[in-house]
Structures are given as C-alpha cells and as structure tokens.
Amino acid sequence: MLSVLKCVALYYKILEIMEVKKNPSADVGRNSSLFFAVGLNIMLLLTYFGFEYKTYDKTLTEADMLMLSEQLEEDIPITNIEITPPPPPPKPVVTEAIRVVEDVEDVEETVVESTEIGQDDVIEPVVEVSDIVVEEVEEDIEVAFAVIERVPTFPGCKGNNDQLRACFQRKITEHLQKNFEYPEVAQELRITGKVFVFFLIDKNGNVTRIKSRGPDKMLETEAERIISILPKMIPGKQRDRNVGVPYSIPINFQIQK
Question: CATH number of the domain at 161-253, please?
Fold first, then answer.
C-alpha cells in the first residue's frame, strides 16, 4: 500500500513538472526573434560607426602647425620711401620795362545805329525783276516700252512703231543667244533658274541702270554682263522729245542633258 502511494505521488510530481514546462512564462525561446532583431540592429550600428570613423596622422598636423608658427614669427622689413619735394617754380623774367603812357588823344565814340525798320522807312529794291533769269531744268522722263509713241530703235531696225518694236525684241533675243556663256562653276554645281534683268535705255540711247534678280549671284552677274554689252540705240521719243524707256527681259539658265 505504501509503494502504491509513492507511485501515485511520483506520478503527480511528474505531471506538475510537465505543466511547469508548458507554462508560457517559463518558455525560454518565446522572445528569441525580438532578441535577434535587437542584436542585429546593434551590430549594424557598430558597423556604421566603424566605417565612418576617421583617423589623422598626428605627425603631419604637427608639422603644419610648426610651419605656420614660423611664418607668423617672420619679421617683415619696413621699407621707407623718400619722396623728394618738387623744385620751386621759376621766377618770372621781365624782358621789357613797363612804360606808362599818358592818355592825351581824344577818343571818338562810335554810334551804333539800329537795324530795325520802322513804318516811315522806305525799302529800296535791291534786284530788279528783269534781272532774274529762270533756267529751265530738263527733267528725265521715263515712258513704258508698251505705250511709248516711238520705241527705241535697235541698230539695223526700220519701219513703223510696231515693226520697230518687233525688230527690237528679235534683236535682243539674237544678242542673248550670241553672247550667252554659262558660268562654269554654276554648270558644275548644276545651278539653274530664270534671271529677270531690268535696264533703262536713256534719252541718249545708252543702256543704264542694269539690275537683275535670280536664284544665284553667278547667274545674275552673267545676265548683267550680256545686257551691258548691248549697242547704243536711237532713243525713244514721246511728243517729239527724247525720253528714257525701261525694259525687262527674262534669261533662262538651263543645263541640257
């Protein structure tokens, strides 16, 4: 009977021990994750401070300090600048003696007359109307080629006004074909286009005021050269008076294949 009681007591003792182990307050690994996180943060913090920690060579610092003290203790010599005073101004030299002359002559006073004209003053004409010569200034009149009474006559043209106009245009075309030269540089660069040339046949029959407008400067220069060598013509007339006649013509620069 006693042994049975001992066994029962031992059984209950074992149960109590097992219940103590199952108690959450007695569990050792309950907060292991928290302890791991805290330890990991502490290690990371120590690693960061280890990388950021800096050291300096004390010998170089002491050497720089010694050199700085030597420079501060260096004595700078004082330089005295002596400025010589300027020389005194020269004394005036009197070359001639001053002679006092007594005023014995009578001085006549000059009366200044007024230049204003009053109502009683008579104005005398300085220039007679008959002495004035009026010079007639001949104005340069320009009349369009299409409406002029007598068109400019190209050398070799004859007939009435319509025949002279047709002959003039035909002679201009022949002149362009005869004297046309395509610029070599423009031909190599394949520069083409139409150039409009404007010029004036003045009252003396000369070709003046040549201007051009085109796609390239080289083509414009060649077109102006062709027009500049036109022969002298008989000037156009309007009411039996020589007048200037403006004229324009297109010149087509084209490279044939």
Answer: 3.30.2420
pLDDT tens digits along 120-162: 665 665 556 565 666 665 667 888 888 888 999 999 898 888 8
Work out the burial of residue 154: count CB atoms within 10 Å of its CB; fewer than 13 is exposed, 13-18 middle, 19 or more buried.
Answer: buried
CA-closest candidate to residue 238, choices 141, 125, 95, 96: 141
pLDDT value of residue 68: 47
What number of other Cβ atoms are within 10 A of residue 214's Cβ?
21
For residue 26, what are the CA distances in angstroms to 18, 23, 37, 55, 111?
11, 6, 21, 48, 142
Mean pLDDT of 7-18: 63
Q: Which two tokens stand for residue 209?
A: 């005021």
205 CB neighbour count, 10 Å cutoff = 17
Q: What is the distance between the alpha carbons of residues 235 and 121, in angstroms, rounded to a whole number? A: 58
Q: Which residues of 65-101 are buried (b: 16+ CB within 10 A; e: fewer)?
A: eeeeeeeeeeeeeeeeeeeeeeeeeeeeeeeeeeeee
* Cα separation, 245 vs 207, whole angstroms: 10
- Tell me if 192 sits within 8 A of 178, measured CB to CB: no
Residue range 213-240, pLDDT digits in tens: 999 999 999 999 999 999 999 999 888 8
- The answer, as to whether pTM is greater than 0.70, is no
3-state SS of 69-123?
A: HHHHCCCCCCCCCCCCCCCCCCCCCCCCCCCCCCCCCCCCCCCCCCCCCCCCCCC
The domain ranges of the chain are 161-253
Cα 239–chain centre separation:
54
